[in-house]
């Protein structure tokens, strides 16, 4: 090694550990693995072709036949888990979201087909009524139509969870933010002989503008019943609140949730860290539709490097303390890591 002369006395030089690729990987603190990722998938009714989602370039809604092909690709990329969301036909929606309890509904058929073809694939589902209600809320409305009725909604959600568990869903994900939902669903599952079905609790689900593109994806629109703008402020957490997430975490853990989740992910890294420190349960984070779309949109304009920003956004979520990341990038990211 050639001797270097320096006019300064700088014995501590952190750059020593950044010199070569070998030493950088030796000291790398955070690693992303395909096994940590969950691919959200939109399921479409019928036997047609997959359809595009304008606000989410690269993401499609899949009829069941194509969903199977997509899951084959996802498994080959090394991702072992998916979470399903239905695009419900407008004609099947009503104010009480009855289609959610159809024993032959779209999600039920999708789960059966997936579990038959790929028993090793972990299949998760979303428990909430918004894909099924005309007003787009996650539950049924109170008599005056001004709010979502917590306990009447729970009566529906527990049945929905049991129906899905009975056809082999590995884990149900209540995303409705009703009080008491984890406990009510846990008891219903246990009473139905589905003690092995897990609960991925949407513990800290914030009232976020970043869900915008998702509403297009599942075809759930703004509500006429609430004056045109759909507000979920009476049940989702306010973006201003951090301690409140810890309260939700405590309740979900007491009610026997298996995994606690923070959603969205990128704008809530502090909350991911708080929950990581507050519990021994695995922590999941949901990088939501708007987080995906903003990277895609900037990349389309040549303003950001998509591959770099995709990976960096996911590493940041992992670094904050998430064990598991639900992301629309799952398949693509995993394929780049092989
Ligand atoms: C509703 C639900 C939403 C998402 C998942 N489940 C939207 C909402 O609460 O309005 C959003 C996911 C995303 O944006 O990717 N149960």
What distinguishing features does this structure have?
alpha/beta; 11 helices; 8-stranded parallel barrel; 36% helix; 338 residues; 10 strands; binds ligand PBG; globular; TIM Barrel
Question: How is this structure best described in words?
Answer:
The two termini are 35 Å apart. The protein has helices spanning 21-26, 64-76, 106-117, 150-166, 181-191, 212-218, 243-254, 269-278, 289-300, 306-320, 330-336; strands at residues 37-44, 51-52, 60-63, 81-87, 122-127, 171-174, 198-205, 259-263, 283-287, 324-327. Helix 8 (269-278) links the parallel strand 8 and strand 9 (283-287). The chain has a single domain (31-336), classed as Alpha-Beta Barrel (TIM Barrel). Helix 2 crosses helix 3, helix 4 (150-166) packs parallel to helix 5 and helix 7 (243-254) packs across helix 8. It has 338 residues and is of the alpha/beta class. An 8-stranded parallel barrel has the order 1-4-5-6-7-8-9-10, surrounded by 9 helices. The structure holds ligand PBG. Ligand PBG is lined by residues 126, 128, 130, 138, 175, 211, 214, 232, 288-289.
**What small-molecule ligands were found?**
ligand PBG
Number of strands: 10
> How many structural domains?
1
CATH class: Alpha Beta
Mean pLDDT rating: 95
Shape: globular
End-to-end CA span: 35 Å
Strand order of the biggest β-sheet? 1-4-5-6-7-8-9-10
Give the topology string: H per helix, E per strand: HEEEHEHEHEHEHHEHEHHEH
Low-pLDDT segments, ≥5 res: 223-228
Largest sheet: 8 strands, parallel, barrel
Task: Look at the helices and sheets and give the structural class.
Answer: alpha/beta
CATH architecture: Alpha-Beta Barrel
Helix content: 25-40%
**CATH homologous superfamily identity:** Aldolase class I
As for the CATH topology, it is TIM Barrel
Number of helices: 11
- What percentage of the residues does DSSP assign to strands (E)? 15-25%
What assembly state would you assign to the polypeptide chains in this entry?
single chain
Radius of gyration over C-alpha positions, nearest whole angstrom:
21 Å
